[in-house]
Amino acid sequence: MKCSEDYKHNDESPQEDEGFMGMSPLLQAHHAMERMEEFVCKVWEGRWRVIPHDVLPDWLKDNDYLLHGHRPPMPSFRACFKSIFRIHTETGNIWTHLLGCVFFLCLGIFYMFRPNMSFVAPVQEKVVVGLFFLGAILCLSFSWLFHTVYCHSEGVSRLFSKLDYSGIALLIMGSFVPWLYYSFYCNPQPCFIYLIVICVLGIAAIIVSQWDMFATPEYRGVRAGVFLGLGLSGVIPTLHFVISEGLLKAATMGQIGWLALMACLYITGAALYAARIPERFFPGKCDIWFHSHQLFHVFVVAGAFVHFHGVSNLQEFRFTVGGGCTEEDGMQ
């Protein structure tokens, strides 16, 4: 696409003839096309300006309390990706999960290439923890990509929002795998059952998230509830572990404290997102920084890291005791 630096209207455009019926609509259509071409050129060249919420098209309206600083519709992926380096309502959303994605990618590579002597069952344990890293990286990747390109068009927004929600479910499912594996290390039967249950629930959440209405502002609370419920399904295996092993062992060997902290971070982030806090109380004051979606992103990254720390402690315990399973453990 070639766009002149200073766009000028074509001097040979049709002249308005007030006395001839049908000429005025033709002229209006011509001018509308010129304005559209001018806008596309500005977007393509990165010369767009942020706009207020009330002039956004309906498919870009998500949070009524963010009044200013929105990107306009930009039907160019090039312009969308260039906007990563501009300041607008999505800047924080993009960078929190883009940097988080890079962090977990590097952490995962470091973990996967650790010496095999750090594991009781090297291949099996690397696969188990690798599923957590895969879920985290996919979740964060889908998220920052969605926030980068969702202003492209309604169709692109709908597609990437479904990927974004699917990524959340994948992160939750991937987080369950290493925790269940190490917590029920000596009792694989309940571990297998709980893994089947979380996979079924996770797939159900992904299927529900493909519904077009799921991404609308009216279903914000439903979205938070679906993923919060998926995460809270871990309460049942946690209680199972506490009852079978005892509170003291669960708090030390089982790293229940880190698990509880992770749950608090995820729940707090989801609650802020659903209630749109703090911008609900300060409309127009948190348009660019510290609005609920950004805070939600920060809590997700923090929660994922806390979970990994707890799982690492579980893994170190199993390596220290060399498995440490007895026949009584297998009977529980």
From TrEMBL:
Gene Ontology cellular component annotations, sorted alphabetically: plasma membrane
Region (Disordered): 1-20
Ubl conjugation listed as a keyword: no
Comp. bias intervals (Basic and acidic residues): 1-12
GO molecular function: metal ion binding; signaling receptor activity
Subcellular localization, as worded in the UniProt entry: Membrane
Domain of life, source organism: Eukaryota
Membrane-traversing stretches: 94-113, 128-151, 163-181, 193-212, 224-243, 255-275
UniProt binding sites for Zn(2+): H147, H293, H297
This protein's UniProt keywords: Membrane, Metal-binding, Transmembrane, Transmembrane helix, Zinc
GO annotation, biological process: adiponectin-activated signaling pathway
Family listed: Belongs to the ADIPOR family.
Protein name, per record: Adiponectin receptor protein 2
Organism: Mycteria americana
Organism ancestry: Eukaryota, Metazoa, Chordata, Craniata, Vertebrata
